Amino acid sequence: MIARLRRAAIAPAAAAVIALAVSSIALLISGNSPVNAFVEMWKTIDSSESTVLIINRAVPYYVAGVAVAIGFRMNLFNIGANGQYILAALLAGAAGAAVSLPAPLHVAFVLVIAMAVGAAWAAIAGILKVARGVNEVISTIMLNYIATGLTAFLVGEYLRNEAVELVAETPKLPASAQLPSLNPLLELVGIDVGGKAQLFGFLPFAIALGIAYHLVLNRSRFGYELRVSGANPEAARTAGINPRRMVLKAIILSGAVAGLVGMSSLLADPQFHKYGDQFPKTFGFTGISLALLGRNHPAGVAVAAVVWATIERATQRLSPLGIPQEIGVIMQGSFLLAAVVVFEVVQRRSAAVTARAVALQAESRTAAAPSDQEATP
Amino acid sequence: MSDVLAPGSPVVAIELRDIVKRFPGVVANDGVDLTVRQGTIHAIVGENGAGKSTLMKTLYGAHRPDEGTIRVDGAEQHFRSPKDAIAVGIGMVFQHFMLADNLTVWENIVLGHEPGGRLRLSPTSARARIAELGERYGLNVDPDALIGELGVGDKQRVEILKVLYRGARTLILDEPTAVLVPHEVAELFASLRELTAGGATVIFISHKLDEVLHYADAITVIRAGRTVAEVADPSQVSASRLAELMVGSELPRPETPLRLIDSEVRLDVRDLVVVSPDSGRRTLDGVSLRVHAGEIVGIAGVEGNGQTELIEAIMGLRVAEGIVRLGDVDISRLATLDRRARGLGYIPEDRQRDGLVLTMPLWENAMLGHQGAEPFTAGRWIDRVAAHTRTAEIIDEFDVRTTGSDVPAYTLSGGNQQKLIVGREMTAAPTVLVAANPTRGVDVGAQAVIWDILRTASERGLATLLVSADLEELIGLSDRLLVMLRGRIVAELDPRAVTPAELGSTMTGANA
Amino acid sequence: MRAPRSVSTWWWAALGSVAIMALARLLSDNDDLTSAGTFGVALRTAAPIALAGLAGLYAERSGTVNIGLEGMMIMGTIFAGWWGWEFGPWMALVGGVIGGILGGLLHAFATVTFGVNHIVSGFAINLIAPGIARFMANQLFVGEPGGSVTNSPGNTSSLGRFTVPFLSGGDLFGWTTPDVLGWFEERGWFAVADLAGAARGLTANISYDVLVVIALFAGSVYVLWRTPFGLRLRAAGERPSAADSLGVSVVRMRYYGMIISGGLAGMGGAVMVLFTNRYQEGQTGGRGFLGLATLIVGNWRPAGVAAGAGLFGYFQGVTLRVEPEQLVRALVLAAAMALVAAAFVAMWRRRWSVLVWAAALAAAGFIAYAMADRPNNQFVYITPYLVTLVVVSVGGQRLRPPAQAGLPWRKGSQI
Q1: CATH number of the domain located at residue range(s) C31-163+205-322 in this protein
Q2: Is the whole-model pTM more than 0.90?
Q3: Which residue of chain B comes nearest to A369, CA vs CA?
Q4: Spatial CA neighbour of A255 closest among A103, A68, A92, A122
Q5: What is the pLDDT of residues C50-64, one digit of tens each?
Q6: Residue A352: closest CA among chain B residues belongs to which residue?
């Protein structure tokens, strides 16, 4: 187990080193000392308040990462996670504000609507792929933009809170749909954040999602068939797995989880409880980065989400100090780029080992059929 | 060992001496000689895996031989890449065409060798040259047609024009007639004749002995990586003698003692037809066969004659017309998983592509194809403990050499991977087993184990359909031998009584 | 190189479009639908999208899918904003190209040399480019008059404009020529005035950078289909192992393709900077992806990309004109009529599934027209993406992407 962890950590560690190097160069260009900058970043995150903020941010990131990871397991690029989640957040928020139910039911109601909307929007891309062979990268990118326009239209015209004039947003969710802050739990454990930050109540849901993802993927028959289809479609077919049905199921499941990305902000963030202009709308893309970094693994994506959120928090207070805040994005971007390159190199190295075994077979066959290989993320 | 070449023959264009080429685990060429005279059509024949393609790759520069010399027109050559070979006038026409479907004929031909300057493509001069070559050698193609719109005969002409355009004087064709219909074959060889009349040299690889005897000026027979015969005058040799040379003058003795076969029919295939969606050809043209309990039926034949289609149709992996019955049950319309659940076991030909997921651990691979059945799943969830237990049983019973059931499948050698697959199928207690090349690429020890498993199982009543390119395996295991050619079963032979000549001839259609 | 049937289809489509636009203008009683002014703006708006599409074309034709077009455009904008401010408008173009090439090289490095998945690499570039842009803006513009992290100080001057003489009243050696097309446009005759407006919009007051774009498109047709370089480039994308077996370096061709792609995308960013005379954060606004859309709609041919970009540019440009709501309504009507026409064609050709799609969308269009009394900009915003989605879904076999675009290639493989 320890050996496995160590082996798994080498590639990301190498990527992290590269990312730090790139950021240091950028810092030097801007006339700042890298050491100084990193020290300042550490100071920012070194507080329980920061920890709470990081976790709050990491939660929706994680959900997005899991959603995208489900698609990746089947070699499907669900780039549309973003469109799926904003549409889901809008419609769930509007629906949730329109009904009145006892608390647990109300929350469940909102969640179900969100998952259904996300699944439906993703299903469009899935059906197009299965029925017409449309590549899901293109269709989901287009659906993202359509969703952006559609949500802006709906929130501007129909689902609007008439009482508020200056901004377009849905009515606020009633208290029965709001998830409470988890600070009391923290205090139980002895952590006192003061009043400066509230730990959002969606965290347990995210944890449950992660556990469910792990269990379904690794312990259920469906998860097994999903993984086989993604790893070796030919073997899956021979094993009696229907590829088209798998594609549909995977993409719909991915969409359903994507629908939950906005739920932390909707249900647990006191700043929101409604969908409007200020609502965060780019978490879907972050999910893609995290799934890639975490290699679709339930724990890996979680670590990636925390790292991502940490970088953002750490660089939040740099500009008053004269250190460019963009260094955060540069760190993230270079980390991702370095990571995917390193992963590929490592994968090729281990593939070379299997290639030797395959070469044995290749020579005894006269007719070598060309095989279409799509590189798996 | 080799027939002496007649003295007084014209210039030697190509000479390969003592070529040795090794790959991990196998020696593909083990001292091959080849002498080709200029202006002749020279055929190279041999079974699958004899080493013909490897030899040709050496000749056209795709790889370097470990030992041996290459002489072109008397001068020794060392090719570092196909470019070097092209430079001395050697042109390779591949069996699987290297053409871009969305580009035109003339674009494919001139690619990399474009006329006109650096700044301008000159399609007119390209078209003129192509027309000229086409006229001279009877290789007429429309230069402006898209490759994707052409049939195989035309595509082959384009491939030949490609090498002629670059000034090839020696052409190598790999199984050129594999995809052609008879009149296209005649046209092809007419063009090749024109070429040799003009002084070019043609080498072609084939296993179709009737064509070889008809068209070739000289023949070299390769078996197991060595030259076993050089025939200077094809009119002096018979097809059966040639077949015998290809296959070897001694066939393995059958190991299975004569057994009484049950009359119960376990697998009943009737009039199975498979039509290729690309070409409309019937790749499986009405095959019927029966396998009884306790019987091993072997299917012999050169690869590409419908064996793959037959197996996949039986397993439900390919759309087919006709009837497949498993015992009393008509499974013709059932999905693959259902067929397997009813007792149809499958050892696929390509274990790494179809039989395993290399990155998954052994215990998950042991579930492949049986993931809906006991003991692996309980309802929707996988029973990990049961799966591990079953995997341990397989490892133990079937001699899979490994450190445990949690290691990924790619850590296993080919032989052990195959034993795992065999064990997986056997422990599911099938009533019928379809096995395709079950010991391909497997070390001798594992091969013996697998053969033993198959024999024991058939003694216990398992009905087996065995498709193989390994004659030793076929003859050693089968109770009955069926030969497939061009999508049909053309003969039923007794493995105990068949002669090498007879088998070779039937497989290659030499007596057709 | 194409079968004559497609040519006549194009003619029918062109004729049909003219008729529909003229009809829409009549029905909505709005001259601006087909005025020279609108088309002029459309051209301006289309130019960056077209460049992005052309950039995507070079990349995919050579075998690499370039999802990172947006990021490369952003690199173009920041470099153009910087060089335009420091050195003048023409240097802005050069700077943009260079910025884009940097992104292109990175993408090529990851995908061609390391074999990283094309989508993943492109996505990473899209992620990192805005950060780099902001960083550079911080270093370069903050503290300068008119500059900030989000925009550059304006360009010192702008490129001149050009008007075709005689047709649109351009100057010829100092003498103002008569404006023939303008005259026709003013008459207001059915279809004639519309065509005149379109033609005039494309020939009057054209900024020089747009002329460069037009020249690039014409040049690309020549380069890709009439030069050895172009042939090898295309072969690297259609069947790399065939090219490799004939001595063409696939790796080199793919690098060239990606460098050109990055450069063109960067130029697209530069054109936007020249339009607004400054760098502005986020000004690319998804045009990189829109370029990808035009690539698909244009069936991977320069002429198609130009047409697609023109279409999308028209949609976007039309909203910048006076009374956008009315224009939008008229457009929706026109689109619905086009779909009805398509439905008839489908019925005639017995393509039932196309018929169903076209009919359904036409119905939706008519409903939208009837319902919306105050249609939002949003509808126009999503139209290009909707169109692309429809094209991809319905296009099927007719779409001809380069055969091996997006699939990694290694020496020794059969593809």
Answers
A1: 1.10.3470
A2: no
A3: B96
A4: A122
A5: 999 999 999 999 999
A6: B410
